[in-house]
Predict the 3D structure of the following.
Amino acid sequence: MPNNFLITGRPGSGKTSVIEGAVELLRARGFKAGGLYCPEIRERGERLGFKMVDLVTGEERILAHVDQPSGLQVSKYRVNVANVDEMSEASIGRALREADFVVIDEIAPMEVHSEGFRRAVLAALDSPKPLLAVIHQRTASGFIGAVKSRPDVKLFEVTPGNRAKLPSMLAELVMEALPRTR
């Protein structure tokens, strides 16, 4: 049975909300989450970039921003690869050591420019701990395609019809996978 649960869907479909809902349900049952969220940075309604937030410590760093002077460009954003390396290795590593399950939001083109991020994602996927992750929908090749095609992965697409049910379904799947890690 897979213990890596990946959520995909169109932009704005509610992928992060689904993960947050599942995490809340699991925390309410006493399970500890670890890993990363990558929320948007917005000013006056305009998306200017993304930050990375460690679920355990609350530490935040810039992932990508329109005003970042250097870094690899993805769309209109420049990626701070050093921040991604440091945050992903620290946050995901901490989750693998200290948490009951791992959260990664999101496995996407910006993040995969980081070798540290790719290593941390593979460590989480290979771990016996359950993984809840958002993964980029449109990419089917390279690192993202390889993650999607792993036999230990179950992929869920968020749609208007299943968005409300997915958090509880994912929480149940994580709980079923948890006893093997304790």
Notes: The domain at 34-99 is CATH 3.40.50.300 (Rossmann fold). The helical segments are 15-28, 81-98, 115-126, 142-148, 166-177.
